[in-house]
Here is the input.
Amino acid sequence: MLASYGGRLERWPAAEREAAKRFLAGDAEAARQQSVALEFDELLDAYVLAGPDADLIRRVNLGFRPRASHSLLREWWLGLALGSAAAAGAACGVLLPVALPQDDSSALNWADDQATAFGAYEWEEWQP
Here is the structure.
């Protein structure tokens, strides 16, 4: 517990404090280890982390200059490109089955429920 919470018993969990006080009062080696832990706690509490110097802050801030906002023209072109790609995909999906060459043996019959863009399929071919 000393390694986890240090020498100050007020930093320990409340449920462990009373048992620790009784143990430290009755064991000289435990009391010595607590005094070592208290010294270490004092060293840790006295340590102050120095902040960055002004030159470092300036150099970091120079590296992160805000970018110019997107212009309306740039956003318009992006929307046009995405819309064109979507329209081309939809057109291919709709027009490709009609434009595919068909041979007489597998002519598409749109009323047939077995018609695909690649010809009619036979259900027996897919059964094990």
Notes: The beta strands are 115-116, 119-120. The CA atoms of residues 75 and 83 lie 12 Å apart. Residues 2-46 form one domain. Confidence is low (pLDDT under 50) at residues 106-111.
